[in-house]
Design a protein that fits this description.
By secondary structure, the protein is α+β, with helices and mostly antiparallel strands. It contains two helices and five strands.
């Protein structure tokens, strides 16, 4: 999972467009969601993963998304294998 601000893309109110994406190991985008202007990637995490079935997958993300609720979602509800932050790759 990775979030990116779109360079040069702005909303009507002037705020930057920011997307959170789920990518496969080969770079194919499996899902993408715009992050609300007054929010962040943390709140977009669950709605982005809800329709996906990552059973058995290893899910990586940056430190911002390293949240206890996210680990529980991935391991207990989505049956993934060892979700980890790309910085530390620690196991919960």
């Amino acid at each position: 999972m990775d979030g990116k601000s779109l360079r040069g893309a702005t909303r009507a109110d002037g705020s930057c467009v920011h997307l959170l994406s789920v990518l496969r190991g080969d770079g194919i985008v499996l899902a993408q969601r715009e992050v609300d202007a007054k929010s962040n990637e943390i709140t977009a995490f669950r709605p982005l993963l809800d329709p996906l079935d990552p059973t058995g997958a290893v899910v990586t993300f940056d430190a911002l998304l390293t949240q206890t609720d996210h680990a529980k979602l991935l391991v207990e509800e989505k049956n993934t294998t060892s979700p980890c932050s790309t910085r530390a790759c620690t196991h919960w």
